[in-house]
Write a structure and sequence with these properties.
Blueprint lengths: L5 H9 L1 H19 L1 H12 L3 H4 L1 H19 L4 H21 L6 H30 L3 H23 L9 E2 L13 H8 L2 H7 L10 E2 L3 H12 L1 H12 L42 H4 L3 H34 L7 H25 L5 H21 L4 H15 L2 H12 L5 H28 L2 H27 L7 H13 L1
Antiparallel strand pairs: 1-2
Helix pairs in contact: 2-6, 2-7, 2-8, 2-12, 3-9, 5-7, 5-19, 6-7, 6-11, 6-12, 7-8, 7-19, 8-15, 8-18, 14-15, 14-18, 14-19, 14-20, 15-17, 16-17, 16-18, 16-20, 18-19, 19-20
């Protein structure tokens, strides 16, 4: 069980620059992931494209985020390679923010978002992996703080963009007159676009100009975000300088401060305790010792759990507005538009709160409590489906319960496999895939079965995730010996032969 004792604080103090750098990198991740929804209408005007064309930019970002997650998993886990990847990725994000105002065609914008998505995927995998291998059994608390910074960046991004968003049509058509009344509530349309899986199929119902004079000021928002993000690659560069990983700092670069090593005894192959960033190949057959089936089953179960839970987060954030403005709730557009902000704010607050809880309870217990809480909240939302007030309460509670499932699952799964590093890549890719695929599937169900099916789908999938986690615990308990390190396996075999 992870505890914030003096030893952990001492470890955190010694790793302070590294830890703070990885946290700032995830702030950059959150900044990039949240800006597209609020600004997409102004980007549509800038590129003079239709809604159906511009919403493919969402897909471009999500797909290449998945690709980037895989690329990050293939990178070597040495400090030089990891920090170089983080530096280039965070710098790319700043450059993408700077060049987006120059993309006057939807294809160019999609390419820019693909680059940003790939950079985000690399950040997601590499930063998680480096902190897990740095803190190992104490990583749960640190990962909670890491994912808190995603929420912080996601809260800052819309606040920066909001003053520069158009209040009316940002393309003045040829037949536009001063007395014309714009046919749509733009805020309603912006909030609807958060569930872009549905908009792709219904974009034709929104009659917006594609030709005329473009009057958007959204470029200033992107340039401000580019400046806000610039300190992040600078921080990564400073860490590389501190660790003498730059060619100009030393002829023989040190891969890690000696102060970061815990203990002076030689490490076992593939496991060195706190501070070690060298992990063996997670799928090395020689290290599985006949337990390859268990190895892959547990990875599959862990991946399926975060596939579902991150998919629930994506689909809830994407379609809660659509659900709220539809019968029987029929909430006002302004009130319904607050639900998404409440949800992300509660996720951010939940990750901050679980930093304290993770120091007092075991990770499996916290995961069971979180997953059971998600099910109970969604069941209550189904029961009180006519209450607008409870929708706000339930949205807040759902965000608090589901906020920490991914960081806890990552810490728990890596602990099961003694930090070989494979779990981080599998879980990050599964989470990205779930967020992309479940939004699409839920959007299709809503279009065919109605808005109530939105909550029903989330409740069923969350119940499945709890069952999968209980199965994971059962299999892990039966096959605990499958996760011993090579040195421990040899000792146990020698002990068996002697007795």
């Amino acid at each position: 069980m992870t505890r914030l004792d003096d030893g952990v604080w001492s470890l955190c103090t010694r790793h302070l620059q590294q830890t703070a750098t990885y946290w700032s990198v995830f702030f950059s991740f959150g900044l990039c992931i949240a800006f597209l929804g609020p600004t997409v209408l102004d980007l549509r005007c800038q590129t003079q494209s239709t809604l159906q064309q511009i919403t493919w930019v969402f897909f471009s970002q999500q797909f290449f985020l998945l690709v980037g997650s895989g690329v990050g998993g293939l990178l070597k886990s040495t400090p030089m390679c990891s920090l170089s990847a983080l530096f280039s990725s965070t710098l790319i994000i700043s450059l993408v923010f700077a060049i987006i105002p120059l993309c006057h065609h939807v294809v160019l914008l999609s390419i820019a978002m693909a680059l940003a998505g790939k950079a985000m995927g690399i950040i997601d995998t590499v930063a998680n992996r480096q902190l897990v291998t740095l803190y190992q059994k104490d990583s749960a608390v640190i990962l909670q703080a890491l994912h808190f910074f995603i929420g912080l960046g996601a809260l800052v991004s819309p606040l920066v963009a909001d003053p520069f968003l158009s209040d009316d049509s940002c393309i003045l058509g040829a037949n536009w007159t001063a007395n014309s009344s714009f046919p749509l509530d733009l805020q309603h349309l912006r909030d609807s676009l958060a569930g872009h899986g549905a908009v792709l199929q219904n974009a034709s119902q929104y009659p917006l100009f594609t030709e005329g004079v473009v009057v958007t000021r959204v470029a200033y928002a992107f340039w401000i975000m580019a400046l806000i993000n610039l300190p992040v690659p600078a921080a990564v560069l400073a860490l590389m300088f501190h660790q003498r990983l730059l060619p100009c700092t030393s002829s023989s670069p040190r891969l890690l401060d000696k102060d970061f090593q815990s203990g002076s005894s030689p490490a076992r192959d593939g496991y060195q305790g706190h501070g070690n960033v060298f992990i063996t190949s997670c799928c090395n057959p020689s290290q599985l010792r006949g337990h390859s089936a268990t190895f892959f089953v547990l990875h599959l179960l862990a991946g399926a759990i975060v596939f579902i839970t991150d998919g629930i987060i994506g689909s809830y954030a994407g379609f809660v507005y659509t659900y709220a403005v539809s019968p029987p709730l029929l909430m006002s557009h302004k009130a319904a538009g607050c639900l998404n902000s409440v949800f992300w704010a509660s996720i951010t607050a939940g990750r901050a709160a679980f930093i304290c809880f993770s120091s007092r309870c075991s990770i499996p217990v916290l995961l069971i409590v979180s997953l059971v809480g998600v099910i109970l909240v969604q069941c209550l939302l189904l029961i009180f489906y006519t209450s607008s007030v409870f929708l706000f309460i339930g949205t807040c509670l759902l965000g608090l319960c589901i906020s920490s499932v991914f960081p806890f699952m990552l810490a728990f799964t890596e602990d099961m496999f003694h930090y070989r590093g494979c779990a981080t890549t599998v879980l990050v890719m599964s989470a990205s895939t779930g967020e992309m695929m479940l939004q699409l599937l839920v959007g299709l169900v809503i279009n065919s079965q109605g808005s109530y099916s939105f909550l029903l789908c989330s409740t069923i999938t969350s119940f499945i995730s709890l069952c999968l986690f209980l199965l994971l615990l059962y299999i892990h308990r039966i096959h605990t010996d499958a996760m011993v390190t090579p040195g421990e396996w040899e000792v146990s075999q020698q002990h068996t032969s002697n007795t």
